Amino acid sequence: MSAVTETAEQAPKVDEFSDHDLEIRRKENLALGQQALSDLIKPVRAMMMVARILGAISGILAVVPYISLVQLGAVLVGSANNGTNPNSAEVMQILMVLIGSFLARIFVYFIALLISHVADLKLNRSIRERMMAAIGQAPLSWFTDRTSGQVRKSLQDDVTALHVMVAHKPVDYMVVLFMPISLLIYAFIIDWRLGLLAISLLLVFIGFYMYMMIGMGHMTVKLDRRLELVAGTMVEFVSGINVVKAFGTVGKAHHRYISQANELSDFYYDWVKPMLVGSAMAVGIISAPMMLLVTFGGGVWLVNTGYVEVSQVIAV
User: Fold this and answer.
1) Measured between alpha carbons, how far apart are the two ends of the chain, in Å?
2) CB-based contacts of 295: which residues, under 8 Å, 6+ apart?
3) pTM over 0.85
4) CA triple 68-70-75, angle to 5 deg
5) Fewest beta carbons less than 10 Å away: which of 15, 208, 221, 257?
6) Quick one: which of 225, 222, 211, 204 has its CA closest to 274?
7) CA angle, corner 182, sides to 171 and 312, nearest 5?
């Protein structure tokens, strides 16, 4: 019972660290973390690079069907205006390009994810083997200075968190980056006014999120520290549950855990609440109705002035 309460009582309060100290720790941890991460992913760096390249190709191929639709629309509209039947060979050629690019994009994306997931499995195995070897040789004082919750977080939670970073981010980030860039380039090729129209809401969206990201690193350090304290007090309380049942006082044994959990909840609520308004506004700006309103509203003006065609506005 005493072990449960002493561990929680000895746990430092997050607020004991000043903002200056936390900022120094954040910069130091960031530099060390970047170097450690670079060394950590070294065995799978080549596989991740191949996955990134394939993700970029997939993002570019995703735009080709839209370009094919524009060409198909131009052929059909031109034939309708001339009162003639469209050239069947030309239509079939455009359709083959459309279907082929769509299937090629799916295939390349699948291969990219396959490579990144194999890299993730290889990296996880390597990390767990190295960590178990290091923990097996660690002195007992190392375990005394750390709670079992902190050890569990390192062995399970932190390693599991690498899955998204290795298996999904290298591919998905390249797709998300290259697909709108390719589409934006195509919009500017059609007409620079159409390109500015397509990018207008995106600039406002980026501005909102840049504002909300101010101080993110500083707050993330605090959040990670509070999560460690909650994990530590939770595991120590559960480990001593038999002693608590036999000798504990009602409401006292789990008081420290509840206190840490409430502090974490209050901290996260105070941090996230102001960002919810900005996030809602940013999401509303790039929502489908707003995008349609701006694109088609400006597109109608561009079509009426003769700068672009209807099919080109629809593709963008």
Assistant:
1) 66
2) 197, 198, 313, 316
3) no
4) 95
5) 15
6) 211
7) 135
Q: How far is CA 309 from the centre of its chain?
A: 36
Whole-angstrom distance, CA of residue 128 vs CA of residue 120: 12
The span from the CA of 97 to the CA of 105, in Å, is 12
Cα(75)–Cα(87) distance, rounded to whole angstroms? 8
DSSP state letters, 273-290: HHHHHHHHHHHHHTSHHH
| Structural contact between residues 203 and 286, judged by C-beta atoms closer than 8 angstroms | no
Token code pair at residue 282: 């940013």
Residue 26 has pLDDT above 90, yes or no: no
Q: Which of 108, 104, 116, 122 is nearest to 51 (CA)?
A: 116
Confidence of residue 4 (pLDDT cuts 50, 70, 90): very low
Residues contacting residue 236 through CB under 8 Å, at least 6 positions apart: 3, 4, 7, 8, 147, 148, 149
Tokens 């996880």 locate to 124
- pLDDT at residue 14 is higher than 50: no
